[in-house]
Design goal:
The complex is a heterodimer of chains A (75) and B (216). With 75 residues, chain A is mainly α. Chain A contains 2 helices and 1 strand; from the N terminus they run H-E-H. The longest helix of chain A is centred in the first third of the chain and has 39 residues. The chains are: A mainly alpha (75), B alpha+beta (216).
């Protein structure tokens, strides 16, 4: 396969990685929203720990998206 | 494996429920809390949450382990497939592996957190006035079912399969008179004690209702 074709395939794979990471970000946002929704209904003693876990998940998914975009641009 | 079913009517009012609550108080953990510090929307003035119940933690741990194993297998499978493709085109595979690793780690962490949140918020509350069942099917779909204690008609416990038998957990099915006819609690600890408590509380509420009607 020539260089142009190889480049196109590599770009498609990079694009798919970014799409998957954006899906993870979407899922993390949904998890955060669901947690906020449940928090309005319940008042739990351990809510701070759960909130930290959910926020950490959200931040990590953003980091994954950013890393994938940077690696796609660099490679 | 055999399936045993245990459907019972109410025990002597109040006493066996108190005995069961006393015995459960010493066995509290994240899956079972007696008199937890929990409040919810729509809670009545003198209402108090007596029990908070979640499914046995081991099922969450098994699910998480399976998630990690699946992620590792997916990483090697996709990595191998993509490396064949990249090598056939003369492209470098090291960056591809790095991107795939980041995706796999991010995705695995997301799945683990989701599994935990779903377990944590799939809960069942018994208060002095009612029972409440919160089911989190996915992050996008949840259901919230309540039933007054006096509307409970029957409580059934089923112990199915080798794992449930080994762990001493069971499924509790609560038949109510309301629209949501059956409430299900899966893989919970001390199912017989829970059954006892629900039936006793239900009987107490029914007797209180009858007394109120009789004195009006």
């Amino acid at each position: 396969m020539n260089q142009v074709g190889a480049g196109i395939v590599a770009n498609i794979v990079d694009f798919l990685f970014i799409v998957v990471s954006v899906l993870y970000l979407g899922g993390s946002v949904m998890t955060y929203l669901r947690y906020q929704n449940v928090k309005k209904t319940f008042n739990f003693k351990e809510k701070n720990i759960i909130e930290q876990v959910v926020l950490m998940n959200l931040i990590l998914s953003v980091v994954v998206v950013v890393l994938e975009v940077i690696l796609a641009l660099v490679s | 494996m055999g399936q045993q079913s245990n459907s019972t009517s109410a025990s002597p009012v109040g006493f066996s429920a108190l005995q069961a609550l006393r015995s459960l108080k010493s066995k509290q953990n994240a899956c079972l809390r007696v008199l937890p510090d929990v409040h919810f929307n729509g809670m009545e003035q003198n209402e108090k949450v007596v029990l908070l119940i979640r499914s046995n933690k081991l099922f969450l741990v098994i699910k998480m382990i399976l998630t990690v194993i699946t992620a590792i297998m997916a990483y090697f499978l996709f990595g191998y497939a993509l490396s064949l493709l990249y090598r056939s085109m003369g492209l470098s595979v090291s960056m591809m592996y790095l991107k795939l690793l980041i995706i796999t780690i991010g995705g695995t962490l997301f799945m683990l957190v989701t599994d935990f949140i779903r377990w944590y918020f799939n809960l069942f509350l018994i208060s002095t006035n009612r029972i409440l069942d919160l089911d989190l099917y996915t992050m996008a779909a949840a259901s919230w079912t309540t039933a007054r204690l006096e509307n409970i008609e029957d409580v059934e416990v089923k112990n199915k399969g080798f794992i449930q038998m080994l762990l001493g957990v069971g499924d509790v099915y609560i038949q109510t008179a309301g629209k949501e006819a059956k409430i299900e609690l899966r893989n919970i600890n001390y199912p017989l004690e829970i059954q006892d408590i629900i039936m006793d509380f239900s009987e107490m509420r029914k007797q209180q209702s009858k007394f109120r009607v009789a004195t009006q």
